[in-house]
Amino acid sequence: MKVKKRKFKSIKTKLLVTFTVTITIIILFFILVNSIILEPFYIYSKTREIKKVYNNINTYYNGDSVINLEEELKKSSIKNNFDILLKTNQDLVVISLDKDAFNTMEEMISISQKNINLNDILVQENNLIIQKTSDTRKSENYILLTGRLDNGYILYIRIAISSIQESVKISNQLLIFIGVIAMFIAGSFSIVIAKKFTKPILELNDIAQKLAGLDFEQKYSESNKDEDEINTLGRSINKMSDKLRICINELKETNIELERDIEEKSKIDEMRKQFISDVSHELKTPIALIQGYSEGLIENVNSDEESKNYYAGVILDESKKMDTMVKKLLDLLRIEYSNQELIKEEFDIIPVIEDLVRKYDVVMKQRKIDYKFSGKESVLVYAERTSIEQVLTNYFVNAIKYIEKVDDNKFIEIFVKEETDNRVRIGIFNTGKNIEVEEMDRIWKRFYKIDKSRNREKGGSGIGLSIVRAIMNNYGSEYGVENKENGVEFYFYIDKEFSR
User: Fold this and answer.
1) What average pLDDT is seen over the chain?
2) Are 429 and 462 in contact (CB under 8 A)?
3) Structure pTM?
4) Beta-carbon contacts of residue 101 (< 8 Å; ≥ 6 apart)
5) How many CB atoms lie within 10 A of CB 250?
6) Pairing, β 479-483 against β 411-418
7) Neighbouring residues of 57: CB distance < 8 A, sequence distance ≥ 6
């Protein structure tokens, strides 16, 4: 079952939703205030106002005021939109500011005095009652003050409250209209503001993702030089990126050095184990011979001088073989496990081959071996001279050791051929038996000898070809052996003169 990846809302969407919800809550709050509080507050305010008018009129008739009563009442009536009716105790009208409303007011007062509802009374004092009432014919609601003055006059003040109810309705409609416009404006602003803020945040997120992938190239570019939180965070990420890059590079270098040290230690340990294994394997036979013949000499098994000399000769011969084998084994281990770089140079390979042939000229004459060289008078190669001399020597000595007569002849031939791919092919052929196919890979292993009896008369240690393999692997060059019609050819490739 696949789990759906959770989609997170963008800051732009969150801002838009936040602004919309906030404005909606504010508008609903004001509508609620208008609907619940405005009308009671209006009634409370008007109640105080008409009560103040009552006190002013009462003060006037008590002779404590110098104001023009009718003029002041007219101003107050216009300002507060109320009707005034003042009667004597004989029902004579002293003041009625609105003649048109006189009759309706008389009727409303008559009805209100007959049907007083305690729930409609707003204020009730000794000489004063303020109550809510209504005009059924006009379907209008009023606040009505009925009060007796100190001089015995009856004062009526009426204020319509239906207008405030209409005002609440209109005000709520206006708030809704304003809310819609405010939401539109807020949405536009939220998009602009979100874009301004999300652009650097998205850039920082992209940088952070690349940092997670160890890519330290991208840097945060400040849109302005303000010391705000985003720019501060961007600069901090840039510093962190630089420090991480430096630390990781240092860690990589340290890791490379550590790997080299571990590899070197592993090679040394492997070389030590291999050396002990090889030496213990190959020295068993010569040590046994030396021990046997030494015991024979000590015990004087053969007392004649000739036998003693033979015993001593065997001991000396085996000692020399052990010395040669150990030296070759050390050379092989040095080549295989050493990290030394090959010091290459340009030199002529022909004189090297000629010196090698001269060195073994006496041996070839003693063994009646014919020799032939096929190649140019001068061929420049680019390699380490010492290692190439070692390869040639091992091949040449191997050819002398394993040469056999073919048609009553022993024959060795050296080939030097320049190839078209900037390489030189050098081969050494000797007459004798072909090497079986399954043996061609094994002969390069250390201590391996083709003759299953490990015949010691040929004096081979089985290390020479292993040294050739190790050297040519260091060069990364091709080497091998091929069966020919009358014998075997060992070959290797080497680079020609260095290309400038």
Assistant:
1) 79
2) no
3) 0.45
4) 83, 158
5) 10
6) unpaired
7) 69, 73, 86, 149, 155
